[in-house]
Task: structure prediction
Amino acid sequence: MMDPVQTEKDNERVKARLEKLLNRLPGLVYRCRIEEGFQLTLEYASSGSENLLGIPAEDMVEKRWNTIERMTVPADLKGMRSTICDSIVAHEPYQVMYRLLLPGGRVKWVWDQGEAIYDDDGTPLYLEGLMMDVSEQKFQELALQDENRQLKLSVEHADCLGSIVGKSEAMHKVYSLILKAAETDTNVIIYGETGCGKDIVARAIHNYSGRKGAYVPVNCGAIPENLLESEFFGFTRGAFTGANAAKEGFVAAAHNGTLFLDEIGELPITLQVKFLRVLETKAYTPLGSNAQKSSSFRLVAATNRDLATLVREKKTRADFYYRINVLAITIPPLRERKEDIPLLVKAWCERNGIDLSLPHKVRLAMAHYDWPGNVRELHNFLDRYATFGQSVADFLGKTETFSPPIEDGLTLAEATQQLEQGMILKTLEKCRWHRGRTAMALGLNLRTLQRKMKSLDLNGRGGD
Result:
């Protein structure tokens, strides 16, 4: 038979050890009694209250009134109370972030999480929780949001966004979507042809998001299918022949960062099923292990294929497609933004420290060429031209076929402007100055045509 005195002593020792542990936690552990009308009376506060609030735990408990609510910034109080009360009614844990106004006027952001304790009838009796200071992270987040707002204002007429170059209307739309994506953790899918810069856009989303983890790029089409699972989720020692040591996968490497999956249309159905579960739960199991791990990564995917078509062809799961196709960014091919070519050439020259002089015939050929390999092909051409000169100009086609009466010594921008003016004027005359038909014939939208006509001083010419 148990000795009641010894049992009491054991209970006191456990209570003392628990108290010691709670007081060492880097935050405030609290226990409140829930009164009628969900009024809260503080019954216990750990010693972390002095570091967090500047008030000793003994003072908080002695006064009995809810010190936290009295210190909460009024604008946050209603939302904080509503979140906690709704969670009590639903018998669910709560998590809420709000501001406290400390003595001396200092503001702190706190992360408050806990849950209610109920009697056998389901009546809430106590509220127990942990409150931590998250001011540094929150102020960094707010500073980043302000920086992104300033960026949004500045990119409207900008020539670039970070290392992404272009001032065309289509690229300004891309810039806006990048900054929008950076403000959230929403899954992003980037569409674009090969060589148009999907990796640069993905990296920009990561950089502007302020995520502390790594940017982990993965080319889904470059990994053999039999290695995909181990590469993504990692493996334990002895998981398969040759696994002499454990290795973490891409998902683990992207913890608190961004996982960029290029050519996601090449991901086989079998891995789509497993990866869909990871997207939903952020939990995964390394190959050869029974222990689940978690990774708080942000997904950005890219493809040059039509995923909706792949869904119809049963090559991509519909649920996987809808999970990744939340915020879509389409990068225009270079042939649809040829006005950006001078800027891209200038950026290439600055990056390589080369003052490249392009004859006007080459510039005109560049303006006429469709660039099926997009910006990557342009960079490759400039690399070769810088090395071999005029002898590689035929790469763009026969440049002598592009020989309208344009003076020598023009810059690429000037030559392009003169060529655009001639083409637009000729097409306007052919279409009897009907701007809608002209825009269609030139492969432009009406707004772009009107902007070009205004900049080229063509609005006052011809008919209506």
User: Anything to note?
Assistant: The chain has three domains: 22-133, 140-332, 335-455. The longest strand covers residues 107-118.
